[in-house]
């Protein structure tokens, strides 16, 4: 099963002929992702690593059975590309690009809501269901199939934790990067119910960070979950008022603090790791208790 | 990017939102002539931090001489640690009532949201929830007059006030959307002689959209030179006070790296997220910024995804060859093209680590001076 993507996901790559698009198309193909077509305006008729390239998404979907798109598009073009994918009827859209203007994100999400499209990102590493499919830029070698659902706001920090899990013999059902921007398509509260429903997922790891209230909102859902949750929150040492890279990662007027998130998650019954490499032992602990 | 009040008010005027008669001054020159026709005036220091009134950044004057004196005094002073470089001199209006009105983005709702209160003039954060009206906006519809009327009704505004308020909100939302704003705030939105007028202006424009207004928007910069250079390179960089310079790729991992340094008893010199996909050139320039802070140790924590380890390794080699690095380097390298990266570093006798524990422990040890210099 896994969530959102699996071996039946047939992927379009928007921006396939660019440096990143081409490199990661190769990486995805090597991983086993069914990349069936690509789009770059003006490059229709070419092939990238054997994948046919079209000028428009409409043309690609009329030639192939496509149900998901991943885009490697410069920030200024993301809004148009995402709307193009949605207008063509694609229901899962992964936006890797960082620095997408906030108002473009608002426009994308408003249309996604109307068309019931699942948007992952922007500013994300993407999504992977190990052994089945990956849509993203994560390194291929650090995952393996297994019972842990992993959802994170940050990319590289989730690599770190996935790598530690895999090293400890704990594979993953699906790993999802929500994205670091203030407005992104999916939140913890959208992903947690999917893991709760997914028969392949036996435990969930949530990787959050300071700022905003997404972790506190997640805690409300965690309190009612049957599956155990382990959490790690980055930013314990961050000074207030300084924006730590991600648009959302800032403690403002005493809100979004590390302490408030730890308190909410602990009260909801989640096990909270104080260092990233403590996560695997905590997961082993909650899994062995047969929850 | 936060705009100074006078810049925000210039945008308000452009969108036909009423503001007090006023002018910005960068010295006392010309203030007497300007205020001669105005009577009582307010002299407001132009700084970005909130609560400037309480901090002594706002003065009142009844004569042109007093106005000039007040301005010159403010221009010699600091408000909350920021030197005052400009003052806004405005007519002092009789005020019947003060409201609060803002449009911002609600990340959880993924929508713009109108925030309003009948009790303006104070810090909105200090108001109880039941005094604040919040109305989410569908961007496909925008703020049409009906949404303004509904907001006004919830603030118990009636008659002509309901119409005037609606007019201000519709225009404010137009500004919010037209200039890619993160926040447009009028606090207070005053009623003076029966007319709505924006007595203050807070406008924050999304940096990521600045490319759309190359000529239109002023540049406001309170960053350090290094922070500016980092920004030009597309790197997020924040200066802290410790002695271990840090570079990582990804905001989360950078934050966690700082947390781990603290855990091991070390102190980070900075937050530097070199970003996803930074190539050799960008990484080399980032490394030069770190070197310029004269840290005891430089720690790079690279977990390659879109970033390629070999390109990062080449950057270190390039800077080492060009500048010579006297500070010990501790590099953690994992992920995309890891083997190539490690090989490149080995050829230059630069040691790399595979886990973040080892790398941070080593960096903290070196910073504490328990070991001699690395390279």
How would you characterize the overall build of this protein?
The complex is a heterodimer of chains A (291) and B (375). In chain A, 33% of the residues lie in helices and 23% in strands. In chain A, strand 13, helix 8 and strand 14 (271-273) form a beta-alpha-beta unit. The model of chain A has no long low-confidence stretch (mean pLDDT 93). The longest helix of chain A is centred in the N-terminal third of the chain and has 13 residues, at 19-31. Chain A has 2 domains: 10-120, Rossmann fold; 138-288, Succinyl-CoA synthetase domains (Rossmann fold, 3-Layer(aba) Sandwich). In chain A, the strands form 2 sheets. A 7-stranded mixed sheet of chain A has the order 3-4-2-1-5-6-7, sandwiched between helices. A 7-stranded mixed sheet of chain A has the order 9-8-11-10-12-13-14, sandwiched between helices. Chain A contains 9 helices and 14 strands. Chain A has 291 residues and is of the alpha/beta class. Chain B is an alpha+beta fold and 375 residues long. In chain B, helix 8 (280-292) crosses helix 9 (309-323). Chain B has 3 domains: 21-91, Dna Ligase, domain 1; 97-212, ATP-grasp fold, B domain (D-amino Acid Aminotransferase, Chain A, domain 1, 2-Layer Sandwich), CATH 3.30.470.20; 225-367, Succinyl-CoA synthetase domains (Rossmann fold, 3-Layer(aba) Sandwich), CATH 3.40.50. The two termini of chain B are 40 Å apart. Chain B contains 11 helices and 19 strands. Mean pLDDT of chain B is 90; it is low at 371-375. Chains A and B meet through helix 1, helix 4 and helix 5 of A and helix 7 of B.
In DSSP terms (H or I, runs of 4 or more residues), the helix count of chain A works out at: 9
Mean residue pLDDT of chain A: 93
The CA-CA distance between the termini of chain A, in Å, is 20 Å
The number of domains of chain B? 3
Biggest interface found: A-B, 68 and 53 residues
Biggest sheet descriptor of chain A: 7 strands, mixed
Helix percentage of chain A = 25-40%
Element-by-element helix/strand order of chain A: EHEEEHEHEHEEEEHEHEHEHEH
Structurally, how many domains make up the residues of chain A? Answer: 2
Beta-strand segment tally of chain B? 19
The beta-strand count of chain A equals 14
Return the string of H and E elements of chain B: EHEHEEHEEEEEEHHEEEHEEHEHEHEHEH
Helix content of chain B: 25-40%
What's the N-to-C terminus distance of chain B?
40 Å
By CATH, the superfamily of the largest domain in chain A comes out as Succinyl-CoA synthetase domains
